[in-house]
């Protein structure tokens, strides 16, 4: 099935997935996993400087679209102590990134909305960091809201229209949601609509020189129907009524690598990736998958 046919299949699932499916707390931080240090399987394209994804597959091979309804019908990523541990590790990463990006702005942030909050673990970390004093989260459906902390205001929604009035929150954020969203700009329009000051969006940048059809298929298998570079991510935001003030690539904390790898390999990954990022953020993003965070302000909408 081609990507276009895959998207058409996704459309047929109805309004539940029309905007997005936000089960993302257990989403792997690097879908390439332990292959982060595998040999490079790409053919460099002299014309565009991008990998030739047909190197390891036939020209007629198509991506396999997962059944998104089945993928998101259960608690995303599974249940149990280990699944909860992974969610917490990832939540610490995401909340730390948000804290870094809003440094110096915290006195102006009183109200916060987490769009696609899942079980609320990121929102819990935001509460512990005391970013804002009125916190809310929304998640498609209502089932997962029952697992959230009782003092956090979490409600279900239809995945299309955020159930709040215009300019309700000082900070609206969505971490690792956009890569799952069918209609990216409509989703971003909604974030912009309910924000009166700031919008923070974070995605994995999975398009780089080491990308292959296989690595993109692994991402697609966990619902990543959109893939980005830092530049294409910024372009998407800027053409969705948002003005990007800060854009930054983030490396994972050591615990993320250690969760999937033995200690020696986790250390090697962490040291190598941090060193690359320290030398050149632009070059590092063309070799490894990093998380890219963007702090934005509402800007003008495009007119057609």
| Overall spatial form | globular
Q: Report the sheet with the most strands, covering strand number, pairing sense and barrel closure.
A: 7 strands, mixed
In CATH terms, the superfamily is Vaccinia Virus protein VP39
Q: Into which percent range does the helicity of residues fall?
A: 25-40%
**Count of helical regions:** 10
CATH C-level name:
Alpha Beta
- Give the N-terminus to C-terminus distance in angstroms: 32 Å
CATH names the topology as Rossmann fold
Strand content: 15-25%
Low-confidence stretches: 1-49
User: What's the CATH architecture?
Assistant: 3-Layer(aba) Sandwich
* Whole-number tally of structural domains: 1
Features of the shown structure:
9 strands, two-stranded antiparallel ribbon, single chain, alpha/beta, Rossmann fold, seven-stranded mixed beta sheet
What does this structure look like?
It is a single chain. By secondary structure, the protein is of the alpha/beta class. 33% of the residues lie in helices and 19% in strands. It has one domain (3-298): Vaccinia Virus protein VP39 (Rossmann fold), CATH 3.40.50. The protein has a 7-stranded mixed beta sheet with strand order 5-4-3-6-7-9-8, with helices on both faces. A two-stranded antiparallel ribbon has the order 1-2. Strand 1 and strand 2 form a beta hairpin. The longest helix has 21 residues, at 81-101. The model is unreliable at 1-49 (pLDDT under 50).
């Amino acid at each position: 099935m081609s990507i276009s046919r895959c998207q058409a299949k996704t459309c047929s699932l109805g309004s539940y997935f029309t905007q997005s499916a936000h089960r993302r707390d257990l989403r792997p931080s690097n879908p390439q996993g332990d292959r982060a240090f595998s040999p490079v399987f790409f053919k460099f394209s002299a014309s565009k400087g991008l990998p030739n994804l047909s190197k390891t597959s036939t020209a007629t091979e198509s991506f396999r679209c997962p059944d998104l309804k089945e993928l998101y019908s259960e608690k995303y990523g599974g249940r149990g102590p280990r699944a909860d541990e992974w969610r917490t590790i990832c939540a610490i990463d995401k909340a730390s990134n948000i804290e870094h990006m809003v440094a110096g702005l915290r006195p102006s942030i009183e109200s916060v909305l987490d769009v696609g909050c899942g079980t609320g673990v990121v929102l819990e970390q935001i509460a512990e960091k005391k970013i804002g004093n009125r916190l809310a989260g929304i998640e498609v459906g209502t089932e997962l809201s029952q697992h959230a902390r009782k003092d956090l205001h979490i409600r279900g929604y239809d995945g299309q229209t955020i159930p709040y009035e215009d300019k309700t929150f000082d900070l609206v954020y969505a971490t690792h949601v956009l890569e799952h969203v069918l209609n990216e700009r409509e989703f971003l329009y909604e974030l912009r609509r309910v924000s009166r000051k700031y919008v923070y969006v974070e995605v994995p940048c999975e398009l780089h020189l080491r990308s292959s059809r296989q690595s993109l298929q692994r991402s697609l298998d966990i619902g990543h129907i959109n893939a980005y570079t830092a530049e294409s991510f910024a372009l998407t935001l800027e053409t969705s009524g948002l003005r990007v003030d800060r854009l930054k690539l983030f490396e994972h904390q050591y615990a993320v690598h250690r969760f999937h790898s033995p200690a020696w390999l986790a250390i090697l990954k962490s040291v190598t990736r941090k060193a690359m990022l320290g030398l050149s953020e632009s070059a590092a993003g063309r070799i490894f998958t990093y998380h890219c965070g963007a702090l934005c302000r509402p800007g003008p909408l495009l007119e057609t």
